[in-house]
Amino acid sequence: MTTHLTDIALFHLIKEDSMEAFTALYMRYWEELYGYAWKILEDKAPVEDILQELFLHIWDRRKRLNIDHHVKAYLYKSLKNRIYNFLKANAVKNAHYEALFNSMGQLAEEDATIDRKDYIQRLLCHLEALPGKMRAIARLYLLEGHNIKEISDQLSLSEHTVRNQLANVKRRLLRK
């Protein structure tokens, strides 16, 4: 019944608490507004949130809103403002988090040195528990940084064997 009405007629019915008119306006513009917001944000969750807030705002303030013409222009302008506010808020959040992470950087470096020493100590203990050839391959690869070809040449093993042994080392270390 309300789908054939103009935007202005729908809006006047919305002001009179017509949920049917509100739904018709929503259905008429949701996809188009979604496409516009998507081109800017490229993220489903905030696009849907912003659109929901926009239509909720219209419903909540339906009695006070005065839109006598160009409902579509009002929707786009409101959407544009909401997207701008969202981007501005996220820029502030991102700047805050970046500053926080930067200030934590020095502490993280100090902790990393301690953690690295602890990690290496634990790794050495686990490596010592490995069988002979597996231990040698793991030491060359993990501690000395040799690649598979170098290890196979040094230990006179095929590259395939070295790969298999490294896979076994990984499995064993992950279990510990």
TrEMBL record:
Tree of life domain: Bacteria
GO biological process, one term: DNA-templated transcription initiation
Domain RNA polymerase sigma factor 70 region 4 type, first and last residues per copy: 121-173
Domain RNA polymerase sigma-70 region: 25-90
Pfam family of the protein (one): Sigma70_r4_2
The keyword Cytoplasm belongs to this UniProt entry's keyword annotation: no
GO molecular function terms listed in the Swiss-Prot or TrEMBL record: DNA binding; sigma factor activity
Keywords assigned by UniProt, alphabetized: Sigma factor, Transcription, Transcription regulation
Family, as annotated: Belongs to the sigma-70 factor family. ECF subfamily.
PANTHER family: RNA POLYMERASE ECF-TYPE SIGMA FACTO, RNA POLYMERASE SIGMA-70 FACTOR ECF SUBFAMILY
Listed name of the protein: Sigma-70 family RNA polymerase sigma factor
Species per Swiss-Prot/TrEMBL record: Chitinophaga eiseniae
